[in-house]
Design goal:
about 120 residues; mainly alpha; Arc Repressor Mutant, subunit A; three-stranded antiparallel β-sheet; 5 helices; about 10% strand
């Protein structure tokens, strides 16, 4: 089987291409094997849920006053005066939905601070 020089070059080129594809496939297989295993989650990583008693105790410790009328009674204002003071930012409170809420300790601190000045 005598081959012409061009045929020999072509067959050599085909053989080298086949070897390159095999090398690429083997590299891909190596990469697939190198994947890191999944890390197991540590037990107790999630925070524990508070019991109802703990939650109610935390809420009571805030000593929140709900509603403009109750806030007004705390600082000796009428309901309308309390609304005005709340809407214009004179009293430290926030609105939750449609209701005004303030912490009793924050209200007292505001008035004690203004009495000192």
């Amino acid at each position: 089987m005598d081959m012409k020089p061009t045929e020999a070059k072509e067959s050599e080129a085909q053989e080298s291409e086949a070897q390159e594809t095999e090398a690429q496939e083997s590299e891909a297989q190596k990469k697939a094997r190198r994947k890191k295993p999944r890390r197991k989650r540590k037990r107790g990583a999630r925070p524990r849920r508070k019991t109802e008693a703990q939650e109610s105790e935390a809420i009571e410790s805030l000593d929140l006053i709900w509603g403009a009328e109750a806030i007004g009674q705390e600082v000796n204002l009428t309901e309308r005066q309390a609304f005005y003071a709340l809407e214009n930012g004179y009293l430290p409170a926030t609105k939750v939905g449609k209701q005004w809420v303030s912490a009793r300790s924050v209200l007292r601190a505001k008035f004690l601070k203004s009495a000192e000045v």
